Amino acid sequence: MSDDSFIREVDDELRSERMRDFWSRYGKIVIGVAVSIVLLTAGYRGYKFYMKSQAENAGDAFMAAVKLSNDGKYDEAIAALEKLANTGPKSYAALARMRMASEFTGKGDTKAAIAAYDEIANNSGFDQSYRDLARLRAGLLLVDTGTLEDVQKRVADLAKSGVPFRHSAREALGLAAWKAGDLKEASKYFNMISVDQDAPNSMRGRANLMLDLIAGKGGTGRN
Fold it and tell me: How many structural domains comprise the chain?
């Protein structure tokens, strides 16, 4: 036997001995880790499938409720949406409650609609965009049914520069002030819309019309 062959055999034996020693010490740990990885992977895939299934079922339930509404079955639609809001995935809870509030408006129950929007706006568990939209919709309903203070309480913060809903919030505040006879306050908000180049043209047109009406009543009108 050559020296090279002997050395290779010794090396192979050493490696084999090291492997046996390694498995005797750490074999159970290695197997346990491998099993854990398999179980975690299976659990993760199962969870993803479950969440996807839940989302699909919630989507179907939401569309079924919308169909009930379109058929004029408001009470049934509200019941279906309430069930979805209470038992469906979190991502659908705010959406279902927003639609519920809209259904109350559709059946002429403005008081219940405002209460529903307020509930969403005050729920810290919902995304801020849903909460702001709920505040805006409640404020718009209160232009006709509430006081200037009621509207201000809900949308004053939304009228600030840079806020996505500022144009609609300013219009709501301007109309509420006009209705309350506060021409100075109304003029302030309609001027904010009038000079904001990012405001929709239709809204700027309405704001300019209101400013002309305010001027006709002795207010400051356009700045």
Answer: 1
Please tell me which residue, 89 or 112, carries the higher pLDDT value: 112
Please choose, from the candidates 97, 73, 98, the residue with its C-alpha nearest in 3D space to the C-alpha of residue 83.
97
Q: Is the residue at 32 inside a domain?
A: no
Q: Using alpha carbons only, what angle is made at residue 18 by residues 15 and 20, rounded to the nearest 5 degrees? A: 110
Residues 6+ apart with CB under 8 A from 94: 120, 123, 126, 127, 130
What are the angstrom distances between the C-alpha of 48 and each of 2, 51, 88?
60, 5, 16
All residues at 6 or more sequence positions from 89 whose CB lies less than 8 Å from its CB, including other chains? 51, 54, 55, 58
Residue 184 belongs to some domain of the structure: yes
Per-residue pLDDT tens for 106-158?
888 999 999 999 999 998 888 898 899 999 999 999 999 999 999 999 999 99
